[in-house]
Design a protein that fits this description.
binds dinuclear copper ion, 7 helices, alpha+beta, 312 residues, 5-stranded mixed β-sheet
């Protein structure tokens, strides 16, 4: 019955979150009753002029004191543990998730599939597999809010954020921007279309033959001249990128960082910020010369070079 009050649950994660919400609601109602029922009862019983027995007032009870300290503590910690477990799950997308790249800009959402399909304000995804959105903004802060999957995450310029869910129910679900981002903020939305895997495959084909994201990335890599230095044939000595993605990189300043999407993006736009140990600071910044989508393509290309290899 109560489910009618909620948006549809289109993923198992949505259901888990609803249970947490109901758990919190139940505890809140319990304490509301525990406090307000006696409060009402005593205010009537001991109202001014009533004949209630006022002799021998209570001077305290250890049992009661212990009870109302221990009982709420246990409940509070239980809720904390429950919420934290779900939070950590939400913050850690499964490794086998289908990655969709998302760029927000005033005032539209752009989506890129690994197979090469591109969409605006509409996202097609298959059922039965976790989907992770790798998101960034081209201008101001936006926020991808998908009520049917109970996920909502800010999309920030200069940074990647993610959100993931496992769509299990075919259908079309609303997509909103949930961060005020200018005049047309309220129009910045669209829909997520969840399809059976076979329908999804057909949809990908119907989008026409396209270069995969990794292939477009390789093209950019050559066009922008990255290959000139990084392909080990040139005269400039630059770190090789073929076995980079997902590995640990030692930097000149002694730090060890993971070569993930963020690292690659920063290395393209702010190359001087992370010099690989043993190399010189020679690379120019590509700020303004490469778009967020192109960076995501290049990242997909570098990722494809290490795909299927076990990390060291
Ligand atoms: Cu984008 Cu609000």
């Amino acid at each position: 019955m109560w489910r009618h009050l909620f948006p549809v649950e289109a993923s198992p994660e949505a259901r888990e979150l609803d249970w947490l919400f109901l758990g919190l609601l139940a505890v809140t109602v319990l304490f509301l009753v525990l406090v307000f029922v006696p409060l009402l009862y005593f205010s009537i019983k001991y109202r001014c002029g009533s004949k209630a027995d006022r002799s021998n007032p209570s001077s305290g009870s250890d049992l009661l004191e212990t009870g109302w300290t221990v009982f709420p503590t246990v409940i509070g910690l239980g809720l904390f543990g429950w919420g934290a477990a779900l939070y950590f799950k939400q913050q850690n997308p499964p490794a086998n998730a289908l990655q969709i790249q998302v760029v927000g800009k005033q005032w539209m959402w752009k989506f890129q599939h690994a197979e090469g399909a591109r969409e605006i304000n509409e996202l097609h995804i298959p059922t039965g597999k976790p989907v992770v959105l790798l998101m960034t903004s081209q201008d101001v802060i936006h926020d991808v809010f998908l009520p049917a999957f109970r996920v909502k995450q800010d999309v920030l310029p200069g940074k990647y954020t993610t959100e993931w869910f496992t769509p299990t129910r075919p259908g079309a679900y609303p997509l909103y921007c949930a961060e005020y981002c200018g005049t047309l903020h309220s129009k910045m939305g669209g829909r997520v279309v969840v399809m059976e895997p076979a329908d999804y495959e057909r949809w990908l084909v119907s989008e026409g033959p396209r270069a995969t994201l990794a292939a477009s990335g390789e093209q950019r890599y050559r066009d922008l001249g990255c290959s000139g230095c990084h392909d080990q044939r040139g005269t400039v000595r630059a770190p090789p990128l073929t076995r980079l993605f997902g590995r640990k990189v030692a930097l000149q300043d002694g730090q060890i960082v993971l070569a993930d999407e963020r690292y690659i993006r920063d290395s393209i736009l702010l190359p001087a910020s992370q010099i690989v140990a043993g190399y010189e600071n020679l690379m120019p910044s590509y700020q303004g010369r490469v778009s967020e989508e192109e960076i995501m393509e290049i990242t997909a290309y570098l990722k494809s070079l290490t795909e299927g290899e076990a990390p060291p």
